[in-house]
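Action item from last week, closing it out:
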Amino acid sequence: MPDLTGADARIDLTNAYRALAQRREEADRERERITSQIAKLDAALEVLRDLVGTSADGAVTVGAGSALAELAGAGMPAPETGGARKPSTRSAKAVDRRVRIIELLLENPKQWFTSHEVARITERPNPTSAQRNAVSEALRRLLQHGSVERDESTKPVRYRAIPSALREILLGG
């Protein structure tokens, strides 16, 4: 005999309500996780904006003082800056150069740059040969990690950003 009291319908509605409430809680937790990640990204971007500046002659300059500590506070790994170097660690100067190069490439993701152009923009208008070599090495390493594209069809060789990979490097991922 069918249930005329409607108890079965109430049970079905109660189960549906519980399932919806549980799904909403899961969505809220996911939203909080995403909001937390966005806050970390915003903090990292602010630190990068503070790091990269321009001098009176238009050269890009980078300060490494407390901004590196802020990177660590934003969930990004801070480079080791003192004492004897291990083969796997980089000096603060090399990290700054790498950040300047990545920032330049991310600001112009569709533009192709030669290593000399990158050195002129990130180091100073007339970079030394050591600085040009350091920039070329940094670009070569970014190429090995799949963060830049290389166009060898023209001379000199040109590089272009792969934005998603460069952002991942900046975020320490």
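Closing note: Residues 7-51 form the longest helix (45 residues).
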